[in-house]
Prior knowledge:
This protein is mainly α and about 250 residues long. The protein has helices at about 5-15, 30-35, 40-55, 80-85, 90-115, 120-135, 140-160, 165-185, 190-210, 210-235; strands at about 55-60, 65.
Amino acid sequence: xxxxxxxxxxAIVADIADARVRPGDPLPGAPELARRFAVGAGAxxxxxxxxxxxxxxxxxPDGRVTVRPEAQWDVLDEDVLTALLASQHGPRVLxxxxxxxxxxxxxxxxxxxxxxxxxxxxxxSNSLAEMTEAAENAPASVEAEARFHRADVDFHQAxxxxxxxxxxxxxxxxxxxxxxxxxxxxxxxHLREERALPEHRRILAAVAQGDADAARAxxxxxxxxxxxxxxxxxxxxxxxxxxxxxxxxP
Length: 250
């Protein structure tokens, strides 16, 4: 898709996520969209195809393009997720991601303790070292903040890889970009030395000792910390998370 089409698609994604256009409503016609964004018909057509691929709109037999229900949107798509997180739906979407992590990562921590090799422990240690170094410079440095999030995701993916469960690893790999995006909303740089880093160290120590119960408990404690971040975020945004109330940490 062209740069112009991408710009149009992102703007419409934001409009839909912010409920400026609601499920079931038609989008403006192609000529009107072309005028609004000062682009050609090809850019509009490309944007609409892209939105359809993301599950956000559907072409109707009468030629209209209407917004699909939110349940059909591709929330693994980075642009869709970013727009949702910036909208009134942000706390609820975060709660869904955090709930996913709680379901997966407590079990994964136990599996890692049972199966981790020397190479796995090295990968976990390297990711934790990268997190620690980046934390010293974030959030003053944008790059350091980004490095911290990447290293954090690397740590959790290395943990899952250490469990030697290939379906679980493949599923988590597919979620990596979305997890990187989602976790940034709950970032608490000023609490990393006090909470995030010690909690990761306890997880690693339990895995290194081969203590599955301790690894699961350490991960559960870590995810409970993030639940508190979500509650704080939801309160500041004036929205309830609208989930079973079981989220986690970036």
